[in-house]
Amino acid sequence: MPDLSGHRAVVTGGGSGIGRATANALAAAGASVGVVDLDADAAAKVAAGVGGAFASADVRDLEAVTTAVEALVEELGGLSILVNNAGVGSMSRLHEYPAEEWDRVVGTNLTGAWHVLRAAIPHLLANGDGRIVNTASISGLRPAAGEGPYAAAKAGLSALTRSAALEYGPTIRVNAVSPGTISTALTSPLFEVFDDEADRHVAKIPMGRLGEPEDVADVIVFLVSDDARYVTGQDVVVDGGLTLHTSGVDGILDRVLALAEEQE
Predict the structure, then answer these.
(1) Most buried residue among 93, 238, 251, 259 by CB atoms closer than 10 A?
(2) pLDDT tens digit string along 131-184?
(3) Beta bridge partners of residue 133, listed in sequence order
């Protein structure tokens, strides 16, 4: 495991899923960790488990994000690592998306990620050595029908990653990870509604299983470690090979629409 002793890290969306696994992995590698999540109780629980700090904020709110980051930086004594992970998703045809849902998805996954960068980068520059990982998605590389705002936002986040790597190197290294189908609260409704969907996914994954949050967290820890000292501006796909065959959620929109018609 990489040694992150002496590093101070902030993880957004750290109350569950990939964020929680990443907070745990960073702490296990020796970093001090601050957890940000919309769910204050979840953030507090993860922070307590890693002996870290926490703050609650909606990443769509620039003022709230800035306040949360400032508080955590003060408590941690600085900032050297940012994991920009908060995200949400939903599914509908483009012309049927409510405007407020479009704003929620894009506002969280793209604008919210920029809010976090805006708040954290001055501290990373002041530290003199910063490492950022943004959580993008394979949906930004290979979208499926029904994922319009989510796919667009994640593709934008991948592009934002490259822009940030250009602007802030060599002081800050900036990379992204693009997870495939990972067993988290974001994907669990899909498998609860369609009980055959997990098997359908696994059949298309060369590694023969769904991803776990720790599969992504370990890659994030590598990217923020000295082992990745010459890696920046990259978007690392962590999908067990899924995108060799499919986006994973190909055809789901048709199933959702058919189910909705049955229930009318």
Answers:
(1) 238
(2) 999 999 999 998 888 899 999 999 999 999 999 999 999 999 999 999 998 887
(3) 83, 175
